[in-house]
Amino acid sequence: MSAFLETRQLGRTFGGLKAVDDVSMAIEQGELVGLIGPNGAGKTTLFNLISGFTTPTSGEVLLKGERIDGLTPHDIARRGIGRTFQNLRIFPNISVFDNVTVGAIGHENIGLGSIFPWQKAKSDRITHKSFEALEAVGLLADADDLAANISYGKRKYLEIARALAMQPDLLILDEPAAGLNETETRHLADFIRRLHREGRTIILIEHDMRLVMSICQRVIVLASGRKICDGTPERVQQDAGVLEAYLGVDE
Amino acid sequence: MNASDTTSRRWLWTGLILTGLFVIVPLLLSLAGRSYFYQIANTIMIFALLAASMHLVTGVAGLLQLGHAAFYGIGGYGAALLATHFKLSFAATIPLAGLMAALIAFLVAVPTMRLVSIYFAVATLGIGQMLHVITLNWVAVTKGPNGILLFGGMKLFDIDFSKPVPAYYLVAVIVAACVYVIHRLSHSYYGNALRALREDDQCADAMGINTPRLKLESFTVSGFFAGVAGALWAHTAGYISPADFNFNVSILILSMVVLGGLGSLPGSILGAIILIGLPEVLREFKAGDFRNIIIGVVLFGVILFQPRGLIGEVSALDFIRNQFGLGRKARSDGKQMRVGWL
Amino acid sequence: MDYYLQQLVIGLSLGMVYALVAIGFTLIFGVLNVVNFAHGEIYTIGAFAGLLLFVSFAPPLVVVLLVVLAVGALTGVGLERFAFKPFRRFNDEATLKSRAMREATLMSSLALSIVAREGIELVFGSQFQSLPLQHMLNSPIKIGPVTIVDGDLIIFGTSFLMLAGLQFVLKHTSVGLSIRAVSNNALGARYVGIDTDRTIAWTFAVGSGMGAVAGILVGLYYGAIFPAMGFTPGIKAFVAMVMGGLSSIPGAVICALIIGISEALSSIFVSSVWQDLVAYAFLIITLIFFPRGIFGGARERV
């Protein structure tokens, strides 16, 4: 029985730099896993390798036992990986609701044929899923606002809602707490916990150590592109290598 | 607001538009009584279709297109050659001209789709210019700068549509049908997908949107409608030459879309009405052709002072969701709104 | 054989002219990351300014070239003021490089180019302007088996001088230093106290001056001065810029020469009316197969 998501000796070099080096990890269904590491540790690159934005130079990525490395981002997204972006990438000039629909549209694989009346069921499903996702993050009241006009905190949730509308089997959140204050971060923690309780598999990439330690069951630590620790938050906190990696770069 | 209210509103606006197009405008034209006015009306409708087709690819999908006249020209020359060389009937040349333009658009799009923003724009400009050089110099087929005269008029099921009034109705029906399809494409979740790739194509890709396919589709569809417009032009004008499809025409169409508002279908059509109509109105008062200079000034003024255009995308979409009842009603915090698409 | 050599010389002159126009494009793209669509009209304006001088005062050629250089530079500064500066309301990195800004300035310069071209046409009419014969640069000179005209030599000479002048300005003057700094890193340049707005204006002045001189040279060489004359060289210069890798001046110059020579040589095989297709074909092939320009080099996603 293979894991839900697995990377095997995954590597990516840029020029001579090994951004991700020989990373093997396995995520089981229903897990909430934190991925941490000092700046430049290769977290986002690893993430881009999984979601197809970057192609690996070595190793492979498997989702539910099937190789997904080398596929396009939209193929990977349709196979069930939903993501958010570290530097907020919402669609600014369309409404909040229309932003969320994009996730659902991707999932329904809508095409030119959608203008025909017999495709109405698809549109209805998209509307329905988008409402659900907006409701889940509590942005329903802002649905018809332009995405550029809502607050920074709300945009973060909008990104998550858009990813949720993709009905992903695996949700990858890239630094969702960046730029949020303490209260907002606490809300976010509760929200991620709730998503997890509802049965979602989540990988959380975070800088905010407290957030990760408080909600994740398992933490994977990257440093200089390599996986240096993988275990419960308690174990990671006591790991000498982790301490060294963090202290070494003054974090 | 209940469901029947929504339906009745949608019919009210649809009815208004159809009445305007098929009753009021022909009535005004017949009062004016000059066949020249019918010609202007046809030109406006043909350019409304061109602007609408560019709206889809440039306004909605965000691919800056500087060679739209090329596909318009392929449609025009395609129809003219099919009608004169192969003696095909009017009814056959219109869709065939559209398909020819769509095929070329597809072939152009396959290699250029990777390009973004201004690089794509310049590639389309280059391709438009190539086609212009070809129509100008491939004299054996296109008769070069002399252009092609079309005989035989517009016959459909043995009825002659060449007279001003029937010609107007024929053009109006075809343009209305094409614009309806573009309206359905841009005001639906398909349109949302296109907007997503306009806003951020990489991000749209990560959401499961097949961005290369969408770009290809929208470009091809847009080419098809430009081709249909070209065929209509060839048949209504009865004569085409390379000058009808040169770079200035591409810019004219772009100006219509920018003036009306990028991403706004009603805006594009309004832009076509203004930019074809205004020089005609001015011509009535003054000698000399200021059309191109007006277009330059208008385009510059809009980009500088009113970058959203006369009817911005946001208000256009609101209008269509509300007045045509195409949005889904929602209520939250006592706020009523229409979102998404039916 | 002589015929080929002859075509080669014609191609070289043509290429030199494209190079002068391409340098303006390249400088401006390097500094602002935008396409100046009105660059071709600067070329036209240069030609008309020279024409007016010739018919009214008939000064020596050197004076005409200097005046045209100044007129071009001034027009370039004016163009920048109206078509580009208003869009730099926000000066952060994201705005400076944003797609919206690039597309807006592309369209605003396009709009102004239409106004300029049509304006000239309203004043002078769309036909070719007749240039007094004695000013035309086409007295034949025989060098061995090849006959060239003095225009070829003057185009070579002027272009060469201007290229050398440009190198001097860029490498050894404070304006050139700021141009290179802004081109490298606009924000960084601002932090170290370089007045970016002034530098951008200077860039337009330098690039446009060279474009205008190219216009009058071609006008004198072919005797063809008309309002729409800038369109095709503008596009070809643009092609040279893209081929050369967008912000490399030597790359643009070499590619301009390649285009000029290819066009001249193509007329050996096909009728010269097809010659324009060469540049468009180069453009499409470069964009598709060599998005970083034919000499490679770093560049953002195209």
Helix share, percent of chain C: over 70%
Distance linking N and C termini of chain A: 39 Å
Distance between the termini of chain C: 42 Å
Largest sheet of chain C: 2 strands, antiparallel
What is the count of DSSP helices of chain C, taking H or I runs of 4+ residues? 12
The CATH homologous superfamily of one domain in chain A: P-loop containing nucleotide triphosphate hydrolases
Q: Would you write up a description of this structure?
A:
The complex is a heterotrimer of chains A (251), B (342) and C (302). With 251 residues, chain A is an alpha/beta fold. Helices cover 39% and strands 24% of the residues of chain A. Chain A has helices at 43-51, 73-78, 96-108, 120-137, 152-164, 182-197, 209-215, 233-238, 240-248, and strands spanning 5-14, 17-27, 32-36, 58-63, 66-67, 81-83, 170-174, 201-205, 218-223, 226-231. In chain A, the strands form two sheets. Chain A has a six-stranded mixed sheet with strand order 6-7-8-3-9-10, sandwiched between helices. In chain A, a hairpin with a 2-residue loop joins strand 9 (218-223) and strand 10 (226-231). In chain A, helix 3 crosses helix 4 and helix 4 (120-137) crosses helix 5. The radius of gyration of chain A is 18 Å and the shape is globular. The relative contact order of chain A is 0.18. The model of chain B has no long low-confidence stretch (mean pLDDT 88). Chain B contains 14 helices and six strands. In chain B, helix 1 packs antiparallel against helix 7, helix 2 runs parallel beside helix 7 and helix 7 runs antiparallel to helix 10. In chain B, strand 2 (155-156) and strand 3 (159-160) form a beta hairpin. By secondary structure, chain B is mostly helical. In chain B, the strands form three sheets. In chain B, strands 1-4 form a two-stranded antiparallel ribbon. Chain B has helices at residues 3-32, 35-60, 68-84, 90-112, 117-137, 139-142, 164-186, 189-199, 201-206, 211-237, 247-260, 265-285, 291-305, 313-323; strands at residues 148-149, 155-156, 159-160, 239-240, 328-332, 335-339. The longest helix of chain B has 30 residues, at 3-32. Chain B has one domain (3-247, 313-339): ABC transporter involved in vitamin B12 uptake, BtuC (Orthogonal Bundle), CATH 1.10.3470. Chain C is mostly helical and 302 residues long. Chain C has one domain. Chain C has a two-stranded antiparallel ribbon with strand order 1-2. In chain C, a hairpin with a 2-residue loop joins strand 1 (140-143) and strand 2 (146-149). In chain C, helix 1 (2-32) packs across helix 10, helix 1 packs antiparallel against helix 11 (249-269) and helix 2 packs antiparallel against helix 3. The relative contact order of chain C is 0.20. Mean pLDDT of chain C is 84; it is low at 298-302. Chains in contact: A-B, B-C. Chain A binds chain B through residues 51-53, 72-74, 77-78, 82-83, 85, 89, 91-95, 97-98, 101-112, 114-115, 120, 122-123, 126-127, 130-131, 140-141, 143-144, 146, 162-163, 166, and chain B through 181, 184-185, 188-190, 192-193, 195-196, 199-200, 202-211, 213, 217, 221, 263, 313-314, 317, 328, 330, 332-333, 335, 337-342.
